Amino acid sequence: MTKVIVSGACGRMGQAVLKAVQEADGLQLVGAVDVRGGADTGTLVGLPATGICVETDLVAALAHLKPDVMIDFTRPDAVFSNVMAALKHKVSPVVGTTGLSDEQKRVIANACVENETPAFIAPNFAIGAVLLMVLARQAAKYMPDVEIIELHHDKKLDAPSGTAVQTAEMIAEVRKAHKQGNPHEFEKIAGARGADYEGMHIHSVRLPGYVAHQEVIFGGLGQTLTIRHDSMNRESFMPGVVLAARKVCSLTGLTIGLEKLLD
Asked: Distance between CA atoms of 204 and 245, rounded to whole angstroms?
């Protein structure tokens, strides 16, 4: 059994992770941490009581619970320190919190080597979202003019989403950077064309009612191609989270992207 602790357990994603871990074969929930603390990890998510209450001190929990894996769905301003604490205690992080900088990822990768402990980061744990990214990279070989629109709930803190950034990075692997649109275009309102990554434009929508959605639109001579993925609820991410929790301890160093775990 892989012993798991959940960081950010009282949040919307954290509660979904708690339920998924408790129901998954091969995983054993041994603890949970959240700044709010207090609740039993079973009753919190509508399952029988476990006797495991949510703690408030992650470092202390890592030390006395000695889990194999920490699953983190917290906040961009907390995730880096959480990951570094886990690696220091030789606990493998599975990270769904977005907002880590490239420099922070480099530091994490070095810490994995120093502590001989693997880590896993994914901007999106939905299998369909991963397939969208893989298909987008393939399509960009033949239709290099592309824009990305990502749509999330209005409580999301970072923009663009980690999924949109990784999608752009994967497309850039097969597409030469070039400016899209009219070379003389101008914005009457700043930001109207969205963020610019290697000439691709990324647009972020934040509205109540959404969960996590993305479409990648390719334009060509006389045609367009749209690839879209929609997560209707947070349960859509759980098969990927469980997969990562089961596999992370067999990895080496820092692994980024759920596609690395798929056959």
From this structure: 29
